[in-house]
Design brief:
single chain; seven-stranded mixed sheet; three-stranded antiparallel sheet; alpha+beta
């Protein structure tokens, strides 16, 4: 059996873009290119709060070392596969409201209480001949042209059907966690630290968005 791992990394932003936990699957399509390039099906990924985290509407300075999300990789897709398979994750069409350009809400899915997912679609790279690196970057509020090479260097998009997404607002402490989260680290699933995190979450919380305590 192939060896499996848990990636841990610190998040400085949690706006619903990376990761994108909407439309029933959590996806990582931008940022963290090394993790996206190396992770395989069956690996786990966990995002933890840095000392300062920019959320949707404000900065959080009281969540350091708390867990924002935990997810198991179920599929590893190319950008072309992702573009074709998950159109619901694409950015919504632009519109004009009150004389100002904006992005309309995607469907009826609500991400976090009292907010929407207007700005959160992470499927922003459309395969297109003649474009730099072979992809057109669709306009979005998060990543501009200067991020394109960095994003695409990850080669893959990670799709996670099994996930626990708390969000920065509701980030949680892990009881009996006996390690400090570095900027990022790869734990073998044989390590007690990795197993303890996954066991604690799976035993105590339901899956999905804003998981409830069992």
């Amino acid at each position: 059996m192939a060896k499996e791992f848990l990636y841990c990394y610190k998040m400085t932003h949690d706006t619903g873009f990376a990761p994108n936990p909407y439309h029933d699957v959590l996806t990582l399509a931008t940022c963290k290119p090394i993790i996206r390039k190396c992770a395989k099906k069956g690996y786990w990924i966990s995002g933890w709060a840095s000392n300062v985290v920019q959320g949707k509407d404000k900065k959080y300075t009281d969540k350091a070392q708390k867990l924002i999300y935990l997810a198991e990789v179920s599929d590893v897709l190319s950008f072309e596969e992702y573009w074709n398979k998950y159109p619901q994750k694409q950015q919504p069409k632009k519109s004009v409201e009150n004389g100002k350009e904006c992005f309309k809400t995607c469907g009826n899915n609500v991400a976090i209480k009292n907010s929407d997912i207007s700005f959160c679609g992470d499927n922003i790279y459309e395969p297109k001949k003649g474009e730099s690196l072979g992809f057109k970057q669709h306009k979005n509020p998060h990543h501009g042209p200067d991020c394109k090479e960095h994003d695409l260097s990850g080669q893959n998009v990670l799709v996670c059907k099994k996930f626990y997404y708390f969000g920065i607002e509701n980030a949680i402490d892990i009881e009996n966690k006996d390690f400090t989260i570095p900027r990022w680290k790869k734990f073998s699933m044989e390590d007690k630290e990795a197993k303890a995190v996954i066991d604690y979450i799976s035993k105590n919380y339901s899956k999905g968005l804003n998981p409830n305590k069992k």
